Amino acid sequence: MSQLDRFAGLDIAVIIPCYNEAATIADVVAGFRRTLPGSRIFVYDNNSRDETAGEAARAGAVVVREPRQGKGNVVRRMFADIDADIYVMADGDGTYDPADAETLVAALIAERVDMAVGTRMGVEEDAGRAGHALGNKGFNLLYRRLFGADFSDIFSGYRAFTRRFVKSFPALSTGFEIETEMSVHASQLMIPTVEIPLRYGRRVEGSASKLRTFRDGFRILGMFLQLLKETRPTLFFGALAATFALVALSISLPVLVTFFETGLVPRLPTALLSTGLMIVAMLLAAVGMILDSLSRSRVEQKRILYLGVPGLPVQ
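Structure for Undecaprenyl-phosphate mannosyltransferase, as requested:
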């Protein structure tokens, strides 16, 4: 049985968020039509100022306009609008090879997982700018430290999903941090996933990266902190509590030394400050423990919602 025969009977949707990709989108759509014949191809145009929408429509894609700027807004709209058994998400810039979509879908089915991630081989060399490569490596390392070792390339935009994943994913992000949110969602709920190393190409002439090194880097870092607060509040608030406690102890040491030597507290403001900081540290620790219980309850609810959506049929 060929790979394509194994996909027979499955409703596959190819979803492509786009912003100013007129130079490449037609070839990308054509590539997916060859690789996944019978699939439905959707291009969501995010206020492009070029002919992205027209080129995609002429290539045979269903074109939808999403006025809210940002990749996260587009992905949230796509996940809400489209019903399918399997979703293949890729960028419209031509850096991902449409021929690899068959591999992702096959892995999704064979491994009985809900998300297959196409990890980008050589992305550090092909990221385009040194800042992108350094940020990609640093954020992936930070992710493994904070959320677990489930993923080696959290920023890959080439992914395949089941309906179960798509319809249970909150999608709260607005920008490029959406892939990070997907990864944390899968790690938190222990959703079965698989990574497939795939080729990663360079942009064609006339197609420019939309990623801003510092602006989007800070946004992604902010998303890391927000997700850490939501998913691991004990660690987040515990770190803050430890910081306040260490500062309180460090500034109180001279006061304590003087007190034990003379029985006097000549630096009353310092003593009051250290006491206040220690109280704040204790409050932060208590908040972390309380929110940890709430976080566990939220995980249970999200898990129930996830299990409430039918998975792929057993083949």
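The mean pLDDT is 88.
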